[in-house]
Design a protein that fits this description.
With about 110 residues, the protein is of the alpha+beta class. The protein is built from 2 helices and 5 strands; from the N terminus they run E-H-E-E-H-E-E. Strands 1, 2, 3, 4 and 5 form a 5-stranded mixed beta sheet that branches. The longest helix has 19 residues. The radius of gyration is 15 Å and the shape is elongated. About 20% of the residues are buried.
Length: about 110
C-alpha cells in the first residue's frame, strides 16, 4: 500500500520515524535527530512530515535515498541538504551530514 498503516496519524508519524531510522541503520548511517512536523490534510489523506538529520559515508548516500523512496508505503524526499563534515579524515569516502524533509501519506480506515 502507498499509505502508512496506523490507527491514527500520531501512530503513523511514529511508524514513519521508525521506518526511516531502520533504513538508515541498514545502510550504515547514524541518526543525529528526527523531528515530527505538523501534518497537513489533503482530501481523505493526511500528509505526515518528518525532518531527519543524519550522517553517513558518501558511498552510501545513493543506496539510502533509493531505499527511502522505492519501498512501500511511499516516503517522499521533499528537501535534501548535504554538507561534508569538515573534520572528516577519510577523503576517499567522506562522511556527510544530511538533512532531509520527508513526507508520507496516512489515510484512516474506511468507515
Amino acid at each position: 500500500t502507498v499509505f502508512i498503516s496506523a490507527e491514527k496519524p500520531s501512530l503513523g508519524e511514529a511508524d514513519l520515524q521508525k521506518r526511516v531510522e531502520t533504513i538508515l541503520q541498514e545502510v550504515g548511517g547514524d541518526l543525529l535527530s528526527s523531528e515530527i512536523e505538523e501534518n497537513e490534510t489533503k482530501g481523505p489523506a493526511v500528509i505526515l512530515k518528518l525532518i531527519v538529520d543524519c550522517e553517513l559515508p558518501q558511498s552510501l548516500l545513493q543506496k539510502f535515498l533509493y531505499q527511502l523512496e522505492s519501498g512501500a508505503p511511499f516516503i517522499f524526499v521533499n528537501q535534501l541538504t548535504i554538507q561534508k563534515r569538515m573534520e572528516d579524515t577519510a577523503p576517499q569516502d567522506p562522511r556527510l551530514k544530511i538533512s532531509l524533509h520527508l513526507s508520507a501519506m496516512w489515510r484512516g480506515a474506511p468507515t
